[in-house]
Each structure stands twice: as structure tokens, then as C-alpha cells.
Amino acid sequence: MTRMPRLLLLISICATTRALKLEATRRALAGRAAAAASSLALTRPGNAARGAAELDAEYYAKSALNKLRGTSPDVFAARQARVAPVAAAPRAVSPALADAISSAATKAIAAAANDANVAAVRASAAARAPAERKALAARAARDLDLGATTDALGADMLALFAEASERLSDRRSRAAYCAAVGDALLALANVPAAPEPSLAKIVGGAEDVLRFFKESGYVSSAKLAFEQGGLGEAAEDYRDGYEVKVSASLDGAASILPDSVLEERGVSWHPDFCALALARYFALRGATCAAPTPHGFDEFLLDDVYRDDPRAFSATTLLALFTLAPPPRR
Questions:
Q1: Residue 323: strand, helix, or coil
Q2: Less crowded by CB within 10 Å, the N or C end of the chain?
Q3: Tens-place pLDDT, residues 189-236
Q4: Minimal CA–CA distance to 3: which of 18, 17, 11?
Q5: Residue 91: CB partners within 8 Å, gap ≥ 6?
Q6: Structurally, how many domains does the chain consist of?
Q7: Closest CA to 178 of 291, 267, 277, 290
């Protein structure tokens, strides 16, 4: 054998040896990883229960692994929802309420803006409608709740919210808009709203307002709750001159999808129409809505299902939080 073939043979032997050692190292590491993973699943001797730290470690390890693989249930559902068809059935909101919302909001924007008439606001909102309908469809396609719709009311609300947010930039004009819309919708609901010192009676009328919006198809369900624990305790505090916190949970509110679109755009002012009627009702009953907002309450979009991946967030409830202050004693 000449010198050159011997050299090539030695190089080949060295390369083979290194490859064998590397493979052995990989197998050893894989074996250790498998042993470590299996140790998480093993219970302690004597079938003792695992501690919280062990359970948390196992959960987060599995969750991280699933996300890396792209098989996490939330991630998978979100991906499926992005390509899911938009629900075809429109929300069954009564025509009377839908027309009242459009008319009241248009008139209130024109009156509060002081630089536009009703026809101009209506034409501007109508020009927005095609693009807003596409925006709603895009959002609904990513929404895990396949009941989300892109009906005409949703597109109208999105256009009106955008008009109000752009045309009304100061607190005074926004407060005037909210009061005017609330008055119009409260008149349609036909709920008496004379001054009343009893919180229990005020709440009874507020429930009538919510019932009207539910029967009109604007919400799937609605209820009031009290931070103090119950109506009895809240009524006592109100009678004694203290503020009380009342929350209205509007499940499946028709404004949720338009709100979600606006939140993505960075538009944070879009007070819900049912909540505006409630706020105006409370004010006419003599209660002061003490929240530091032009509309008199705080509102939040909630997902009633905890999702491990924030990208899978799907709002199902709108929560309106009211702080009611009783009228000053004479």
C-alpha cells in the first residue's frame, strides 16, 4: 500500500470514530432527557400525591413543548378559526332597535359636533360601510366564537363608532352625544325614569331596560351584580349616602365584534348602546354616574373561557361598570 492510500485510510478511520462517538453522545443525551421527562410523570413512593410545584412544572413543560410543535389546543383552535368561514346567519336584532340606534347616533353626532349636519354624518358613515364590513369579516374569521356575525347592524355600528370617535374629540361633545343617544333608546324601551331615592326600585327599572335589549336581540343575556355582595346591602349603603358599584354583564352584545375591531385600531372610545341607555336611566333616576369618563361608566371586553394563548382571545361578554352616587341630602 502506498503512502497516499494509507493516509486516506487513516482519515476515514478517524472520521468513522468521531461519528460513532457523536452518535453515542446524542443517544446518551436523548436517554437522559427521556428519563428526566418520565420522572415528572412518576408519583412518589407509596402513591403519594405530587406537589403543586411538580404539577406546575409538568404542565408548563408540556405546554411549552406543544407550542413549539404547534399542537397546543389554543394555538390549533386559533389557527383553525383564522380560516373558518364567517357565520352566515345575521344577528336577529329587531328592526325597530337597529333603526333607532342608527338614527339616534347619527343625530347625536351631528348635534354634538357643531360642524356637521345629519345628512353629512349619514353620508360619511355610509361611505365607510363597505370597508367596515370587510373589517368585521376579517375579525370574525379569526374569532373562536363562530356565532360572530358581519350583519348590517354590526357594520353600521362600527361606522358610527368611528364617526363619533373622530368628530367628537372633547369631553363636552362626547358627554352630549352619550346623553342624546341614551335618551332616544330609553324612550324606545319605554321604561319610566323619574327621580327615585330607593336603589331597589332603581334596579328594578334597570332590569326592565336590560330585558328590552334582550327581547330585541341586542344581547343574548344580561344581568346586574353588586360589588357589596347583594342588592340589600348595596341599597342600605346608597340610602346612607355612600357610592355603590353596579356591573352590567352583557353576554353576546351586538357591539362586541365592532368593539374588537376598534380596539385593534387603537380606538378606545366606543360606548355600548345598551350601556348608554342604562347610564341615562340611572342619571334620570337621580343617581350620579361617578366614573371619570364622558359616558359615565367603564367597560371591558371579557372572554368567558381562559385561554393559554392570548392570541386566541375571543370576547363574549361586555362588562359595564357603574359607580352610582346618591343625590346629596337636603
A1: strand
A2: C
A3: 999 889 999 999 999 999 999 999 999 999 999 999 998 778 999 999
A4: 11
A5: 149, 151, 153, 154, 217, 254
A6: 1
A7: 277
